[in-house]
Amino acid sequence: MVSVSRRHFLAAASAASFTSMTSLGRAAEANDEIRVVVIGVNSIGSTHLNGFPKIPGVKVVGACDADSAVLGKRAGEFDKKFGYKLKTYEDLRRVFDDADVDAVVVGMPNHWHGLATVWGCQAGKDVYTEKPCSHNIWEAGQMAKAADKYDRIVQVGIQRRSFTHLRDFFSEVQQGALGKVKNVKGLYLSRRESIGNPTSPPKPLATVNHNLWCGPGSTKLERAKYHYDWHWFWEYGNAELGNNGPHILDLCRWAIGAEEFPTAVSSVGGRYVWHDNGQTPNTHLLRYEYAKAPITFEIRDLPTATGKRDTCDYMGLSYGIVIEGTEGTYLGFDTGKVLDPDGKVVREITGNTGTDGGRQLHRENFVKAVRSRQTSDLNCPVATGHLSTALCHLGNISHRTGQAVSLASLPERIQDQPLMTDAATRMTDHLAANGVDVATAAVELGRTLMIDPKTETFPGDEAANRLLRREYRAPFVVPEQV
Ligand SMILES: NC(=O)c1ccc[n+]([C@@H]2O[C@H](COP(=O)([O-])OP(=O)(O)OC[C@H]3O[C@@H](n4cnc5c(N)ncnc54)[C@H](O)[C@@H]3O)[C@@H](O)[C@H]2O)c1
């Protein structure tokens, strides 16, 4: 198996010489109106409904959602704001059947990103799909193949890729602006709450087509709140790591120019305090081995201490990255600052972040590529989104193939990984502040998994390789042959 990243890069380079379009779709010529449908319009999809019409030459013509209440609400708001009625669809397959649609925006949950993108490409539509790029590593390869085969433009919604000030600064970092990079730390130190523990099985919302919503995933419902809380169930979501990780880990690997899989991943984590039925960790430490510099990532979803409503920070930063170099340190997220070895701020890194948290610049970039038909014009094609998303999947695979050990034994067990030891001390102190009895509590010690970046697999590790893909619930199956 050739790595997704390499194969897609080669295919994109050769596809760049094509100017003709597949016969399946309507070709959006340079001056043509581009007709867009947004699929999944509850939260992020609603920002796309509002953002795309602001781009000259783009017309949002429809909205699709498996929840008729959400669909009706968003269509009504759109009519009020833009003065015309959207075509509405319950079933996304009808959007792909519609010859009047040029491009789709996928604002559905993670378990739908891969299949909707493949179907979209097969139907001749260009696709802007939200992060994470995929729900598992294998399906990202199918997305890349479909984009190549049908000569489609596919952008992944990791919007900071459209910040030119970060691109320029990270290029300087790679040329030594901070001296030799010793390590990069990603931080997502947030605060969330228990999602509850329903004792009797919850019922789907009356307004939702539950079969369509679940798509490739199980129809068993285990959460009280239907929307958003799916993030914390493996059938649909990818944990906080796959929720905010794609943004943060993308910055980490972009900063050092890591354009392939790491050679190893390890993790430590657990779900503490809440006693709910969410499945994914709310406290997670990850480490990725790269020859250029190791990347670590700290995730916390608990406040600084019991009863508080604030978030933790590291060097004053709650969300973002810290690049530690021999001659300076960078701290930032959308923008940032450089500190000299004495901790004095010597430079501000700022630039145009556009509107809507950078998403409008990213939408504009997508539209530019839809017009030029050049994947190379995209700031976050599948190959890029896949590499950053894969870091999340790799960390989750380490976690899910690990074993519970006592938290008190952790320092000894990870003593050969200095950056993890520091982070684990911070993690343990944080758990203690949140009322966890750290003398008796357990922690999931993820396995350290060795990775072959050429094949994007775990050599000889059947248990880990099995988690590179999922079981799909028919008929919602990402095809072997796209
Ligand atoms: N780029 C960003 O900054 C950013 C920010 C937030 C969310 N996201 C991503 O966007 C996606 C959606 O997140 P959200 O917070 O809006 O989730 P949400 O649960 O609030 O909304 C998802 C919507 O998709 C609909 N949906 C589900 N299955 C469908 C189907 N088969 N057909 C049509 N509609 C369907 C749901 O009914 C719901 O209205 C996630 O993958 C998330 O990671 C990206």
Automatic annotation (TrEMBL):
Record bears the keyword Oxidoreductase: yes
Official protein name in the record: Inositol 2-dehydrogenase
Organism: Blastopirellula retiformator
EC top class, as a word: oxidoreductase
Highest taxon of source: Bacteria
Name of the coding gene: iolG_5
Annotated ranges, domain Gfo/Idh/MocA-like oxidoreductase N-terminal: 34-157
MF-aspect GO terms: inositol 2-dehydrogenase (NAD+) activity; nucleotide binding
PANTHER family for this protein: BCDNA.GH03377, OXIDOREDUCTASE FAMILY PROTEIN
Protein keywords: Oxidoreductase
Alphabetical list of Pfam families matching this protein: GFO_IDH_MocA (PF01408)
EC number: 1.1.1.18
InterPro entries reported in the protein's UniProt record: Gfo/Idh/MocA-like_OxRdtase_N, Gfo/Idh/MocA_oxidrdct_glycsds, NAD(P)-bd_dom_sf, TAT_signal
Gene3D superfamilies: Dihydrodipicolinate Reductase, domain 2, NAD(P)-binding Rossmann-like Domain
